[in-house]
Write a structure and sequence with these properties.
single chain, CNF1/YfiH-like putative cysteine hydrolases, five-stranded mixed beta sheet, 14 strands, 23% helix, globular
Length: 257
């Protein structure tokens, strides 16, 4: 094991499976990226990011090249993987596998990073769900791909890791209108903010609704607010408010070992 700080959920602990919701602590990056930045899309030193990911892979018990994180595009697309990526990362926001020796990861700095396991079929998954991905169906797509590998939906356990919290995610009226136009029930995930015409959006609650309605066996929200907890988590919105030049990304990953 490495000395990185990773959070764990008892719901995902099953024989032959390792996982971690990695924090920003335990890496080698500096400045706004301090210290366990896992984002290859950031402007951080690539060698530092590679070392950070090596430490995460060690924690998960896989080879560094077997820690697979897609090129995330806020899409509803999930992919089944059976081997390490080639020269180019696939563009998608969900990964699923039943192949041992692989770790599936997603990055986030406010978006919902969700890990999945079906313990009897030994199928795992990871999904990156920002508001757009969650609204467009990335969570349901990940479940559907797991079923193709033999998972039973009612036995799948899903855990949401560090995500911007319902008291931190302020949005404008056009955002609220977009959700209201999709379903009247979605209004339950908004509450007024101090700024006139604005509201707070409960992204974790919305993710939970989508997974529950999709028939997942269990859903657990770790209830960790990336925006409010600067010591442990990176936050895109916090860095934007402070006008930082860039921001780090944490990784959530699960492995069949």
């Amino acid at each position: 094991m490495s000395d990185v700080l990773a959070l764990h959920a008892t719901e995902l602990e099953t024989q032959g499976v390792r996982h971690g919701f990695f924090t920003r602590q335990g890496g080698v990056s500096t400045g706004v990226y301090a210290s366990l930045n896992g984002g290859v899309g950031s402007k951080d030193d690539p060698e530092a990011v590679a070392e950070n990911r090596r430490r995460m892979a060690l924690h998960l018990g896989v080879e560094p090249a077997h820690l697979l994180v897609p090129y995330q595009i806020h899409s509803p697309d999930a992919l089944i993987v059976e081997a390490p990526f080639g020269d180019e990362r696939p563009r998608c926001d969900g990964l699923v596998t039943a192949t041992r020796g692989l770790a599936l990861g997603v990055t986030g700095a406010d978006c919902g990073i969700t890990l999945f396991v079906e313990p009897e079929a030994h199928v795992i998954g990871a999904a990156h769900a920002g508001w757009k991905g969650a609204l467009d169906g990335i969570l349901e797509a990940t479940l559907a791909q797991m079923e193709k590998l033999g998972a039973k939906r009612e036995k799948i356990k899903a855990v949401l890791g560090p995500t911007i919290g319902p008291n931190s995610y302020e949005v404008g009226p056009e955002f609220v209108a977009r959700f209201a136009g999709m379903a009247e029930s979605y209004s339950a995930f908004f509450k007024p903010s101090p700024r006139e015409g604005h509201a707070y959006f409960d992204l974790p609650g919305f993710i939970g609704l989508r997974l529950t309605k999709a028939g997942v066996g269990s859903f657990t929200n770790l209830a960790l607010d990336t925006y409010a907890d600067e010591t442990r988590f990176f936050s895109y919105r916090r860095c934007t408010h402070r006008q930082d030049a860039d921001y780090g990304r944490q990784i959530a990953a699960i492995a069949l070992v």
